[in-house]
Amino acid sequence: MPKVPSFSPVIKNLTFIYEENLNRETEFGGSDFSGYPTLRQRNDSYDIRESMSIHCGFVKGPKPGLGTGYDMNEIDRLAMENCHGVVVSSAIFGNFDEIQQPKNISEYSKKNVCFFMFVDEETEAYLRKTSAIDSDRRSGIWRVVVVRNLPYTDGRRNGKIPKLLIHRMFPNARFSLWIDGKLELVVDPYQILERFLWRKNATFAISRHYKRFDTFTEAEANKAAGKYDNASIDFQIEFYKNEGLTPYSEAKLPITSGRIRVPDA
């Protein structure tokens, strides 16, 4: 692991905000958990500066997972705070997938990498019924964390929270690796980080969809699969259109994909 992280501007003053008494869902999308930032505010948040204020779903509680509407017990929160170095995380909500055990994990990674699987109470009940977790809430290499008081009725949206806000849940981890619940990790996490981050001195890497590169095509695929309510998807697409999003084409190169997951969490 690199002794010095990849170059990135340093934030010295960071404030997480939640604007009270707003009814902006019909105008901007979003939710009470994530807030209702405009697209301009979202884009501005990517411009790292010394002092910043950004929306965050964990802003209501004293710390992520405590009184935030995405609550975890104290033992799990402490374990997340004490995770240094690398964290591998995944989530299963609504008992939608089976836990996949990582393969080819080195003994060093077993001792030094944090493996966390986030589930809801429905999934926990199934795991206990099938003896997929033990009395210490472990499933193989995974530490299973039960999340309560979920902000969304849709399990897919609840699963987006550890995917997008893992840096808030693990404030002392240097690197994180997200694995979708339906996927199986078959390579040691240090090998993935070395190939996609450390070789290129990069701070972030994301896989490109094997088939779809256009947001509008993605929206129709989501509707066809019944992943979300169609009206919610249509609303989000209209929001993107109003903000100036156009269909993807090679004219947008070197951007290799215009795909945005919908609807917004």
From TrEMBL:
Coiled-coil parts of chain: none
Record domain TOD1/MUCI70 glycosyltransferase-like: where: 14-257
Top-level taxonomic group: Eukaryota
Listed name of the protein: TOD1/MUCI70 glycosyltransferase-like domain-containing protein
Native source species: Punica granatum
Taxonomic lineage of the native organism: Eukaryota, Viridiplantae, Streptophyta, Embryophyta, Tracheophyta
